[in-house]
Amino acid sequence: MDDKFDRDEFSNTRYPRREERKTVSFGSGQTKVEKVIPSERDDLKEEPVYFAEDKEIPVRKERSMQNRNHQRNNKRNQKRRKKRHLTGFAKGAIILLIALIVGGGMFFAMNRVMNPPVEEMELSGTTVTVTIPDGAGTETIAEILKENDLISSVFGFKLTSKLEGFDGTYKQGTYNIDTGMTKRQIMELLQSGKVAEDVKLMIPEGYTVKQIAAKAEEAGICTAEEFLNEVNNGTFDYEFLKDLPERQYRLEGYLFPDTYFLAETYTAHDVIDLMLKRFDQMYTEEYRNAVASSGKTLDEIVTLASMVEKEIKLPEERARAAGVMYNRLRDGITLGIDATVLYAVGKTAGDLTQDDLNIDSPYNTRKNYGLPLGPISNPGEASFKAALYPEDHKYLYYVVEAVGKDNHVYCETYDEFLNAKAAYNASAQ
Q1: What is the extent of the structural domain holding 234?
Q2: Distance CA 151, CA 403 (A)
Q3: DSSP three-state, residue 12
Q4: Residues 320 and 252 both lie in one domain
Q5: Nearest-5° Cα angle at 272, 308 to 341
Q6: End-to-end CA distance of the chain
Q7: Is-contact 372 303, C-beta < 8 A?
Q8: What separation in angstroms does the CA of 384 have from each of 137, 212, 251, 268, 389?
Q9: No. of helices (H) and no. of strands (E), the chain
């Protein structure tokens, strides 16, 4: 080239040097920092050099300000989120409350429409007669109605009864209920006490089948003969009646004593079925399980209960007297129950003659060991429970304390028995 580079021309001109960078190492695994060597120009500002240390790296002032601002922003955001959460919860609670109020109102309104008062109802079904026993609770009543296909659900009836305030207001008696009635209509009817009181039949505890037959005839339901014929030959579908032995009155012991309100159209079969149904209601699952674990049949328990019913008047003595019977059966001693002899000779009360005591009958527990052939009366629940849960003791005898009294003296030995009997005889003089 023609033009030559004149070194001297530029020799006095000084240009800034490029920054030089050096890497300083502080050991294995430590941070490496480049050291910047600035130019030699005075007008260039020197930047501070930062070196990594083992524990802490100094933070710039600007970065600290940023961190503080960031923290303040986070707190504000948290407060906003918390406020939004609380506001959302409150809104949800209000919506839920409104839904409950509206739903409850709709329920009662619909229930009112679907279950009008009795006086507003238009019956279209057939009539079913049911008996509500004395002291029956809502669940028992619901089960009776369910058995007669008057309601579809025991739980539904109980729930409506509670919500509508009917619990504890139902009255005993026999009711004619139309199958077209709603739950609420049935509840109002049972609350009203408007029973089918065409015929009232009151059967005391301890009555025999023959005595019940006479009461049925007296009430004009049927003749005593028709009643007894139905007792022995009628068809009744109850599990507890299976495998009963042949005897004079097949259903003796199972016609539950109670006060029954009957329609004029009732027959002997209807009355007997109603009594058997009451026994079935009394015979709860608890009792069924107790009988199953007792080592005795239901018929044996009913037989024991029937003797307790006829022999003992005081409720507090029933389980004790049942314990005496169990002890004598255990020890192979004849029961010696006078009430069984009365039943054998066809009496319900009175004194026994020597001929009565010598009667050849499976019901004569003076002569025969073990239980009689079957029940000798129709016991109530208290006597049934006493026979099922007898008192545990060592007594083998009991004697009425004195003439005119109902309580008994209980004895462990035969000598004690003779002394108690002598005291009774002395009281008669």
Answers
A1: 200-282
A2: 54
A3: coil
A4: no
A5: 35
A6: 173
A7: yes
A8: 21, 19, 16, 25, 9
A9: 15, 8
Tokens of 391: 């008192």
Residues in the chain: 429
Nearest one of 367, 258, 339, 253 to 302, comparing CA atoms: 253
Cα angle 99, 101, 106 (rounded to 5 degrees) comes to 90
On whether both 380 and 351 belong to a single domain, the answer is: yes
DSSP character at residue 246: P
**CA dihedral angle for residue 338, residue 339, residue 345, residue 351, rounded to 10 degrees:** 60
Identify the three-state secondary structure at position 264: coil
- Could you tell me which residues come within 8 angstroms of residue 255 by beta carbon, excluding any fewer than 6 positions away? 203, 209, 212, 231, 272, 275, 276, 279, 378
Provide the number of structural domains found in the chain: 3
Mean per-residue pLDDT pooled into runs of 10, the chain (429 residues): 47 48 50 49 49 47 59 65 57 68 57 46 66 88 92 92 90 84 89 75 94 94 96 93 90 94 86 94 94 95 97 96 97 95 90 90 95 96 97 96 94 96 91
Say if residue 125 is in the same domain as residue 181: yes
Give the model's pLDDT for residue 80. 62
Among candidates 37, 31, 78, which has minimal Cα distance to 51?
31
113, part of any domain: no
Q: Tell me, what's the pLDDT at 95?
A: 73
d(CA 221, CA 267): 6
Residue pair 275/203 in contact (Cβ under 8 Å)? The answer is yes
425 assigned to some structural domain: no
pLDDT of residue 379: 97
CATH number of the domain that 174 lies in? 3.30.1490.480
Whether 27 is in a domain gets the answer no
Model pLDDT, residue 131: 84
129 and 179 in a single domain? The answer is: yes
216-245 CB burial, b ≥16 within 10 A, e <16 = bbebebbebebbbebbeebebeeebbeebe
From 225, 255, 282, the end of a domain falls on 282
Task: List, in order, residues 6 or more apart from 102 with CB less than 8 Å away.
Answer: none
Quote the pLDDT of residue 121: 43
Task: Give the Cα separation of 326 and 270 in Å (integer).
Answer: 36
| 138 and 154 in a common domain | yes
* Residue whose C-alpha is closest to residue 257's, from 222, 309, 296, 218: 309
In terms of domains, do 154 and 228 share one?
Answer: no
Together in a domain, 215 and 137: no
84 within domain boundaries: no
